[in-house]
Amino acid sequence: MDEAVSARLLSAMLLVAPLAALAQSHQGLSDPTRPPAEAMQPAAAGAQAEPAGARKPVLQSVLVGKGHTGREVAVIDGEIVRKGDKFRGAVLEDVGPNEVVLRRGTQKEKLVLFPLAAGSRKK
Fold it and tell me: What is the pTM of this model?
């Protein structure tokens, strides 16, 4: 009977050892979707936040419905803006399939959905 218990104990150890090694090997892996460490740290007490108007708005998405008036919508800095609506003091004047135009008085600002791809095109 002692031989049967020893055999079971040995087989249990042989099954558990690889699982323990596997668990240890995964501890060194990091989550690829986790934000970088500097993004997780709070801003320094002496540092001032960037004013909202100082940086250029970012166009994130565009929705244009063919033949449907009022279906021209843009997502700018996380806000949904319809054609003709105001966004931070500017009016969304035009919505295209890949860009929008914001107007502040007489000044117009063009936001491109994929600015790197648009800038890399040969003219």
Answer: 0.51
Rg, Å, the chain Cα set? 28
Give the torsion through C-alpha atoms of 117, 68, 106, 56, to 10 deg. Answer: -40
Chain mean position to CA 57: 15
- Write down the CATH number for the domain with range 59-119: 2.30.30
Q: Where are the domains of the chain?
A: 59-119
Q: What is the pLDDT along the chain (123 residues), one digit of tens a residue?
A: 677 777 887 777 777 777 777 666 656 667 777 767 766 666 554 455 555 556 789 999 998 877 666 688 999 999 999 999 999 999 999 998 889 999 999 999 999 988 766 555 555
Query: In terms of Cα–Cα distance, which of 93, 95, 99, 100 is closest to 65?
Result: 95
Q: Which residue has the tokens 């502040």?
A: 104
